[in-house]
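Exercise 7 asks you to align residues with tokens for two separate proteins.
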Amino acid sequence: MTAAEKRVEELLDRWMASLELHARYLKLDDAAYARVEPWPRHQRPNAWVVELARKRLLEMRALVTQRTEAKDEGFAEALELMSFLTNLLGSEHIDRFIPLATGKQQDTSASGTVEQPRLRANAKPAAHRSAPRSKAPGAPPKQTARAGTTAESRPAPHAANPTPNPPPPAPDALSKLVIADAVRMLEWGREWPALAGLIARMADRPSEPEVWKILRAYRGQILSKAGRPAG
């Protein structure tokens, strides 16, 4: 079995395992379904869609087995190439797809979210100002500040030198794969917000939250390689 055939077999296995989970999730209500996994944005698949995907997947598995036994090594490579081109050129940002289910519970911690909303600082309540006291008759006027000690004349404190962000660690093999995918997609005209969803749907790629972590960590490197302005 060639490397491409092995990758296709592993991808089909992951898809089948995902459909088995989706078949179990059909019994959940919408609230429980939303919490069972860290889903990307999508329209929840119904029983008919899940069953149709299962039927087509079995047909694809039988076809792959047939071509593998016939020593057609180019078939698996063609499937991978078509999958890449479909994600790169043909697919638009749509909500109607069956996301990959892994059986992992949703991580509700701050580190496990894809995008953390920025909380506005609570406005401090205004301090109650006491009414000005009337001066006692004959009281001496308050002394004025000495020259050279006013706020305007005081030297401004030296601003602390900002600490530069440490460079990201050297990317591992999976990060290099995601970086290369992102560079190609940017060169082909895709926009940054759409990259994670497109890359996560490709074979042998991590989940969308993991892709986002890699993209954010190596954003400068990716934009530089793709000839895009940083910002």
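Second protein for Exercise 7:
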Amino acid sequence: MKQAASGDPGSWAELMKRYRSRLRRMVSFRLDPRLQGRVDPSDVVQDVCLEAWQHLGSYAKQPDTPFFLWLRAVAGHTLGDLHRHHLGARMRDARREVSLYQGSLPGATSAALAAQLLGHLTHPSEAAVRTERKVQLQTALNTMDAIDREVLALRHFEQLTVSEAAVVLGIKEKAAGMRYVRALRRLKEILTSLDGWAEP
């Protein structure tokens, strides 16, 4: 870290190797669905790396936040700018759907969560099943507390550790772990109460 902050590009490249895949996972998940196919998450990550490199000196002087969470925040600002540039006024339309906890990052919607939960049902015969399940999942997710949906997103899809999720949410680590377990239990309860739901 010190070598990279002093301006050594080789050290910075080595440092970013550790975090690139995690950043890409986060960017892919938070990228607005309307931009999929138009914006490559890998290009966004590259922009994030350049932006972070330019401000690394400032971070190194006061590293109050874990490094990856700082990178994640840089990615959040980059995604926010990207969404405003491409979607403009249409950003408001996306907010009609109940979205996740609103922090410095673009909120992942219940549609994004539902798509991730479903995995990859790609055969033509599975298309109708996928569509029906996605609607059911979105319905279930929209009845949950926003922070519970965000805990699912952070832990299950961004794969943040419990301590990292706690920092992002501004709660204690034990509370973050408990909320994740509770959110999983609550989602299962809601889904089993829906007519026609069959667990994959």
